[in-house]
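Researcher: Re-running this chain for the archive, since the previous output was lost when a drive failed. Same request as before.
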Amino acid sequence: MKVTMQDVAERAGVDKATVSRVLRGDHRISEKTKIKVMESVRALDYKLDRNARNLSTKSSRLVGAVMRDMAAQWAGAFLGGLERAFSNSGYDVIFKTTGGAAARAKRAAEALDGLGAEGVIWCDGENFPSALSMPVLCFGFTREDFHSLALEGDGAPSFETGVLAARLLLKIIAGKPVPGKEIRLKAPEKED
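Model: Regenerated structure tokens:
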């Protein structure tokens, strides 16, 4: 049987709202109460219901990354950088591919939208959907009305480039200032 927030509250001798406040880090809760609640959480092995949290915070903590394919030599490092930066910021990332097909690009956009993704890094300029209902960072190409990040030079995207792209998308999602609509980075040097 799944452990509920009510179970934690009963074991700790507090109400459900207090458990919620403790789990959110509310500073108004006494240290004694925090300890009781957290001991109950551990004893019962309580896991937060992510869907319920998403409804209450209106945030899915989910982002997407869409590429033509993931077979490119640089893809692993770039995607690893994206995943690391998103994960460190409390986000999960869903990777999709277009396979170079407009229909697959449309399905990828619809899937991310249906899952409540808060933003997407789109890496296939030839298959960019006509309508996206979330913040977008175009990677490697530009589109009017969207932020873009492009590399200058002959180098390929790297782990660090992925980290930078993820951080930039998170700023866009949060509505924080970014250096401009079109950002250009010097590509890492090619290794021989």
